[in-house]
Design goal:
β2 (58-61) and β3 (69-80) form a beta hairpin. The chain is globular, with a radius of gyration of 15 Å. It has three helices and eight strands, in the order αβββββββαβα. The protein has a five-stranded antiparallel β-sheet, with helices on both faces. Strands 4-5-8 form a three-stranded antiparallel β-sheet, with helices on one face. 21% of the residues lie in helices and 30% in strands. It has a single domain, classed as Peptide Deformylase. Bound molecules: nickel (II) ion.
């Protein structure tokens, strides 16, 4: 595994649309492993491939320790409820904002075995799913934040 560099805000790649993955091969499995390592090293709970410079539709999300979701070509197929909570992004260090997200979402994706699965998550997990999948279409959380927080608010 290898820790990769995280692309920061201002790099135009973050605004590009990622391409679907047609075959889950060794290169994709390696990318997923590297993304997990990179996300964990940065203390993040989600990472999209575009954030390590690869325009492919794959995200990793890990809200609960050692229970990562690897999502290839993920799609939100159901949204329920609403939440407004604080969000940040490894590509936008030091920025925090309140976003308007569904409380619960169901995602359909493929795993590293190439098989399709669905998963439903609520709260932080739902926010992370939405946030990472937005990255695949060049959307950043600041685009639809209800409001951004001042640094003093974040530090409490
Ligand atoms: Ni992000």
């Amino acid at each position: 595994m290898a820790k990769l560099n995280i692309v920061k805000e201002g790099d135009p790649i973050l605004r590009k649309k990622s391409r679907p993955i047609t075959v889950v091969d060794e290169r994709i499995r390696q990318l997923a492993a590297d993304m997990l390592e990179t996300m964990r090293a940065a203390n993040g709970c989600g990472l999209a491939a575009v954030q390590v410079g690869k325009l492919r539709r794959i995200v990793v999300v890990e809200v609960e320790e050692n229970k990562p979701f690897i999502m290839i070509n993920p799609e939100i197929i159901r949204r329920e409820g609403r939440q407004q909570e604080t969000e940040g992004c490894l590509s936008l260090p030091g920025k925090w904002g309140v976003t308007d997200r569904p409380m619960t979402v169901t995602v359909r994706a493929s795993g590293l075995d190439g098989k399709e699965y669905t998963v439903t998550g609520s709260g932080l997990t739902a926010r992370a799913f939405c946030h990472e999948i937005d990255h695949l279409d060049g959307i950043l959380f600041t685009d639809n934040a209800v409001r951004m927080l001042d640094p003093e608010e974040v530090e409490g």
